User: Which sequence fits this backbone?
């Protein structure tokens, strides 16, 4: 099934000039960026995006990290895009991530783990709509 998912290249990866390397892995996996922008999130935007994690021990530090520098936001489209992007990213903790995944290769630690991906159709719908409106989505003609 063709799906859409939200991807973020997090501040740790942008700072280390990894936008291109991560975009190459996205395209190699058969995932098509259909919307993309670079921005620096406000505290309120980061807190709203991660609202499901509010109250957890890592929440405040996560928000501080996510606003510590620019991020790249993308909507990826493709067959089973949600699961596929999470496979390409690897597990949350780079120590547990499979060899060859983005997090295994690039993440600094469990927090500064280089990329975000939606985890289910409901969260993908919320997250893509949180950052992009319909006019920002490109539909390439094939
Ligand atoms: P994922 O990004 O793999 O979906 P979660 O949704 O569980 O992971 O967590 C959101 C983000 O919060 C993670 O990507 C990571 O940046 C941070 N995070 C998660 N767990 C921890 C933790 N135990 N300590 C520090 N940061 C964490
Ligand atoms: Mg998550």
Assistant:
């Amino acid at each position: 099934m063709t799906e859409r998912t939200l991807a973020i290249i997090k501040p740790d990866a942008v700072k280390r000039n990894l936008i291109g390397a991560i975009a190459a892995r996205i395209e190699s996996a058969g995932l098509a960026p259909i919307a993309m922008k670079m921005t620096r999130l406000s505290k309120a935007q980061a807190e709203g995006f991660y609202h499901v994690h509010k109250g957890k021990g890592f929440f405040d530090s996560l928000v501080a990290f996510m606003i510590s520098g620019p991020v790249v936001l993308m909507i990826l489209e493709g067959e089973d895009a949600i699961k596929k992007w999470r496979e390409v990213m690897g597990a949350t903790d780079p120590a547990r991530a499979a060899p060859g995944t983005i997090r295994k290769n690039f993440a600094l630690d469990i927090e500064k783990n280089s990329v975000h991906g939606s985890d289910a159709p409901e969260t993908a719908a919320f997250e893509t709509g949180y950052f992009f409106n319909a006019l920002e989505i490109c539909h390439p003609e094939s």
